[in-house]
Amino acid sequence: MNRFGVKIAPNVRSVLAAAYSTRSKNILRQRYQHRNKDGTFKEFNESITVVPKEFEQQDEYKNEKRVGQIYQDRYKKQQQAKQYLFTLKLSKEEIAESVEQKDVCEHRTQEDGTIQLEKSPYRKKQHQCIFCKYNVPLDYKNVQLLSQFVSPHTGLLYGQEVTGLCYFKYKELENTLFKARKLGLMPFFYKETVFVNDPNLFDPFKNNLKQIPDDYDKRKLNADPKINE
Asked: Pfam families under this entry (predicted)?
């Protein structure tokens, strides 16, 4: 009899029991999949797995309850197997003998084998800027040194990838060059006398655009001849 006072037939009762057993099986499965590293269960709310007394003696419930102990035993066997495989129980004398044999074999095979290099031959040499390598001081009065880093054609300072200087020395070179130009020791557009009469590589004032034709009014339009008559 249900909560409404209606009697339930035996076949219907068996169907409800089977449905409840499958549902409880899924609930228990969700509970047992959460375990600690040592195989023990975590603390869960016991109310989610409460089973009525009339279903406690079912085979499915008993099997689900037995899974926990099976899992713990299996986990312990796996740990013992790992410990047996990855650990060697040797005495100190046996370890010393194995090390000596290993050293002897290595020395014998290295005579005709590959040579172990201390440095990699494929490693690039560390680049050092010329100012840092020879400790050259940068002075705004040394115009001859500063002019070597300025293009004689355009009068502009070469880039860092062209000069090969480090970041700090390149910034110091820019500031020193600006200071020398401000004081009048070096012109802003530096160009040697040999290159004065050379043609310019680029003339920004030259108009390369073609002249726009002004004959739009003289064009013949495709008008209707009847209208013109």
From this structure: Ribosomal_S18
